[in-house]
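I hope you will forgive my troubling you with a question about protein structure. The full record is reproduced below for your convenience:

——
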Amino acid sequence: MPASMPGGREELGQNFLVSSRVIGTIVDLVARTAGPVVELGAGDGAVTLPLSRGGRSVTAVEIDPRRVRRLRRTVPEHVAIVQQDMLRYRPPRHPHVLVANLPFHLTTSVLRRVLAQEHWTDAVLLVQWEVARRRAGVGGASLMTASWWPWYEFAVVTRVPAEAFRPVPSVDGGLLTVTRRKTPLVVDRVGYQRFVRDVFTGRGRGVSEVVTRTGWVSRPSMRAWMGARGLRSTMLPKDLTAEHWASLWALATEDALSVRHLRFEQHPDSHVNSPRKRGRSR
């Protein structure tokens, strides 16, 4: 049965979760993790209160002052209520677990901010269904997912029907889990993410042509890389996996070093910073 909760304030873009089944799934997912919990967008405590029963430290962030006052009267002592916009909240600088029912119109903004933060270990996020699928690479990964795959694993848990929210949104939601990798697949985040952006925005009939046109990898190296993995040259950047991206980045940096070394041998007095056609520094 749905948990009894009032609807969200329309001006805050809130669609509160009212399904006890989905709330139970969130609590179960959090129970598989360890450490303090930070909940973004606590609302009236539909998830906060069940989370608090696990005995772990919980910090619940909510922007609506009326709901903050009500929450402070109902939560146990080990739950801290913070009145703050989730886009401005500064998370703790120690390992913690993130939980959030994200307003659909803020999902991308919040995710960009969250993924760039360093200290959380796991996240259980309720987002729009199609966003959950794209983040997890179902049906093709997005630029955002490919940019962060070497540091995180994304997984879709379940679809959440629109009827599980009040007020009822026009689209379904989806439960997404994000887990920080213990060992990143890539070290150079800045260079790698620039590479991914260039590939996703580059022109060509397939990933092989796009990558070579950007100048990151030579045509012979790209052909050999694709062949060794049995990949079609016409497949798109969205079809690559996390491991593909990490391996392709390693190839790009290897190719760059080879080209620089060759050019230095031929022109030892020249300063060649990059083999890329557009002459950008890495």
The mean pLDDT is 88. The chain has ten helices and nine strands. The chain has two domains: 10-180, 189-266.
